TrEMBL record:
Cofactor names: heme
Enzyme class, first EC level, given as a word: oxidoreductase
Annotated TM spans: 9-26
Protein name: steroid 11beta-monooxygenase
Residue numbers binding heme: C329
Entry-linked PROSITE patterns: CYTOCHROME_P450
SUPFAM superfamilies: Cytochrome P450
Source organism (scientific name): Sinocyclocheilus rhinocerous
Enzyme Commission number(s) of this protein: 1.14.15.4
Any one GO cellular component localisation term in the record: mitochondrial inner membrane
One GO MF term: heme binding
């Protein structure tokens, strides 16, 4: 089997400790993520009510959800809430200057990264190219935000936290398992690795639900029934709605965030009748894997329920969007839960909204037309 034969040579203890803590802290950070997801939906609802057109009770609005989804991802995990246990208020009506600067920095960093991948950094540096300067300035802000958050944590850890959840990083510091120096050394992966990775799949999930109304209905019916039985517990609500998890898996099957998962075998191996010498870079290409009819029946169909059947039959090692083994994605549990919670709350919203697909372009690939039916407005959010 691929996962038993292939191992990465190097191993980062810091990331492994983090993975275990994130895995074990799900129960504690779910309510934090739930708050942010509810704020996202409240702000969306407010926008439709105030900026939408049409008669009261049947307002409609066309919007690009991408900026708000980025804010959601930032607020939820990498910026603060799960990692540091604090909010920066990106959904408040008047975000602080610090919050605005931080979101600017992350957006600039993400926007300037792709062109820089193809241009020689030395040349850009020598030319003092604005692209380079903006990229470097953006990273300076991100680092300084991260360092300030870690310093704030240091003052609280060991002191009177009043039982407040200090975020995954605060807990690790409190338990003496991770020093602030190690956290600072890994801050870029933690803070920048969790923004577009979740915001973009969320857009694709909304896009697929928009153009598959039958799927949307089935997911909604399951979510509503699960929510009614969950007595307000987000964890129970998610557990009772496996189609939400299926929606995320299905989205990542069709639109994987990482293009490949890579390993260097530590000894010679034979894969699919090919001899692979030790030390060779082996890449599993997730996009063709997810769309192969040899691996998935009718791969072109967006069908979240295929993953329930998959779980029943043991899975067959087909979901590799987060990698696998000891080097799998550290933020997996945060990302999975965060995306499911957002979809769950948007689906409550969908009680009141009908999502239709607008024009599809290659980059700004969809617009969502929301028609609000206020007579169905529920008290849920
Ligand atoms: C949908 C969201 C995400 C996807 C699809 C994703 C995917 C991946 C993949 C494929 C890897 C490589 C795993 C391997 O080689 O086996 C990885 C590694 C990593 N991810 Fe994610 N990721 C996501 C979200 C996040 C978040 C939210 C964080 C941080 C909070 C994060 C932090 C990391 C880190 C630190 C690593 C390196 C792990 C190591 O080298 O041991 N990721 N991710």
């Amino acid at each position: 089997m691929l996962h038993t034969n292939i191992r990465k040579l190097s191993y980062s203890l810091t990331l492994f400790i983090l993975y275990l803590w994130v895995y074990n802290s799900v129960r504690r950070f779910l309510p934090l993520l739930d708050d942010v997801a509810q704020d996202f939906c409240r702000s969306l609802r407010h926008r439709v009510e105030t900026e939408g057109v049409g008669e009261t009770g049947q307002r409609s609005m066309t919007l690009d959800p991408s900026p708000d989804l980025f804010r959601f991802a930032l607020e939820g995990q990498s910026s603060c809430h799960v990692l540091y246990g604090e909010r920066i208020g990106l959904f408040s009506s008047s975000p602080s200057e610090e919050a605005e600067r931080f979101i600017w920095a992350v957006e600039r960093m993400l926007a300037t990264t792709p062109p820089l991948l193809y241009l020689p950094p030395r040349l850009l540096l020598a030319l003092r190219a604005p692209l380079w300067t903006q990229h470097a300035t953006a990273w300076d802000h991100i680092f300084s935000h991260g360092f300030c958050s870690v310093s704030r944590l240091q003052t609280v850890v060991g002191g009177a936290s009043d039982g407040r959840f200090l975020g995954v990083l605060g807990q690790l510091m409190e338990a003496g398992q991770l020093s602030s120096e190690l956290i600072k050394a890994n801050i870029t992966e933690l803070m920048a690795g969790g923004v577009d990775t979740t915001a973009v799949p969320l857009q694709f999930a909304l896009f697929e639900m928009a153009r598959n109304p039958g799927v949307q209905e089935r997911v909604r019916a399951q979510v509503l029934s699960s929510w009614q039985q969950a007595s307000g517990s987000p964890q129970k609500a998610l557990q009772g709605a496996p189609l939400l998890k299926g929606t995320i898996k299905e989205t990542l099957r069709l639109y994987p965030v990482g293009i490949t998962v890579q390993r260097y075998p530590v000894r010679d191996i034979v894969l699919q009748n090919y001899h692979v010498p030790a030390g060779t870079l082996v890449q599993v290409c997730l996009y063709p894997l997810g769309r192969s009819p040899e691996v998935f029946e009718r791969p072109e169909r967006f069908e979240p329920s295929r993953w329930s059947l998959d779980a029943a039959s043991g899975g067959g090692f087909r979901s590799l969007a987060f990698g696998f083994g000891s080097r799998q994605c550290v933020g997996r549990r945060i990302a999975e839960n965060e995306m499911q919670l957002l979809l769950m709350h948007v689906i409550f919203l969908l009680q009141n909204f009908i999502f239709n697909c607008g024009q599809c372009g290659p980059w700004r690939f969809f617009e969502i037309i929301c028609e609000i039916y206020q007579q169905f407005l529920s008290e849920n959010w």
